[in-house]
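Shapes recur. Our protein:

. . .
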Amino acid sequence: MNPEYSSWLRRDFLKLGTAAATAALLQACGGDGDRSDAPESVRWTREGILAALEGPGTNLGASSVALLADDRIVWSEAFGYANRDAHQRATVDTRFNIGSGSKMFTALAVMILRDRGMLSLDQPVAELLPAFSMKSPGYTRITARHLISHSSGFPGSNYRNAFNFAFVPGYAQDAFQALKQSRLKHDPGEFGVYCNDGFTLVELIVPELTGQSYTDFIQHELLGPLGMALTGFALAPAAEGTFVHPVWREQTLPQEMVAPYAAGGLFSTPSDMMKLARMMMDGGVFEGRRIVSDGALQDMGVDQSAMTRIDPAAPSWRWGLGWDTVQQPGLDAAGLLAWKKGGDTQFFHCDFIVLPQARLAAMLVNDNAFTGNRLALLEGLLLRAAQERGMISAVPSAIVSTVPPAVSVTPGAAELIGIYARDNMPVQVLAEAGGTLAFRFWTAGEWTVADKGLRLRTDGWWWADGVAERCYAFKTVEGRRYLIQRSLSGNQLYWDEVPVAEWLPEALAPLPAAWQDRVGSQWRCINDDPESFEGRYEPRTGVIGELAERPGYVMWNDDQLLRVINGNEAGMTVKIPVMAGRDLVELRMEKGEDGEDRLHVGTLVFRPMPEI
């Protein structure tokens, strides 16, 4: 899973140093870590990882990497600590949670079922799962393809009891109930926006069609045949020393047990994941045994945006089936076809890249202490490995960006100002003297300047003087105006272009009295499991508000601006492709058994907090 995505934040290029001061503390474990004659690709990446794990004393992160060439792992190495308190170092067999890397197995499960004639990609989910329903009648048009290509129209993610410190059952069923109480945020197949709940629904379709639990199916059809003995689901506590302990606020925590199995529940090692990569490079066959058809793998690698009604024109996010992108731009800059999947949990992060034609693959995983740009490191590793194997003549040069000249007249600039909403931190676009624009974020109850002095340039984008690594544009699609951000990638090999917010019109009416009376009220969740992250360490709270610059909308938790449906319901307002509209919510007020108001957000239940 990808808990929070801040598309606005500048991605600083990782400065790769020698990290000599910390090399002794961050000894590599396993693999080829101690070889002095390692190729430049390995030396370069190792230095980058060490630099990203620098820290005072023993407050160091953990990371692990593997590189596959043809049928052989040519480099695997682990860094840092599996348990900092016990001074226990990570090894190449130490397991990390891989979050949304798990979606590759979910997509493969769907393709295996298709190979066996048990479903078709364009078959309605309501036929596969008869109990499925939503408040929007369009749910009947959602297909299996929509679930695994982020185009279902589901609100986003059920985060209740997702990241836990003990086995907490029932997550998929809870998400199912949340969907039954929800509306669609866009029409099925309209566009793609990252969505965990689509994959979670596959967790319920598998037993409906096969009689096997989802976890048993993945074990029997994929993990077992691939010999992935170090990969699995946290159905019970793992043996101490086999996994990396998460660290939060300088405190070493118990094992993170991720409950959304199909969306992000697997743990693994980079070396184990190279077995999956081998199968993909060999057309669905692993060590002589067919796992899935070659046609299924090729279909997973097809750009799904061509099948949606709206193409978001986001070159970094060309969804495949399961894949985040089937044309990873850092490798594409060298003419190399690459499929990429990233993943995040509360505490761990990974990127997994397969080059099916070049027969290269790599994975890098780390915990929250890692300060570098993981994707830039992984792309750099694969580019250098491709060069060493004679596939490319050189690693592409970094883009040298310059700010274009400003235009003398900026027609229509006044129409661009206003409030732009998203899944968090609304944006205000302001006109400045001299025809420039400024952007402000709403965060922690106040406006904070994000960019200023933006001028329209001859290329049609808004740039600030002297800031050559990012720019902005405004694009209207089917009557909706989007703020688009274009920024240089972490390795400066390509431009990352995504919509980051949508202009929100003035409300047609003021807040009704029922909602006006709730403005300023604070709420605490009462049904997080005691063993969840929120139940154990950081209680979930929220506040109902109203933004002065856009009265008439309900503001939830200083983040999302919602439209009033009636005196007890507020719903989603924006439809933003890719990431900035990914996890939207609806509010529903009901009376509890004690007669007190209860606020429902999906299946989360909140009660009023006492006024101070």
About this structure: Confidence is low (pLDDT under 50) at residues 2-33.
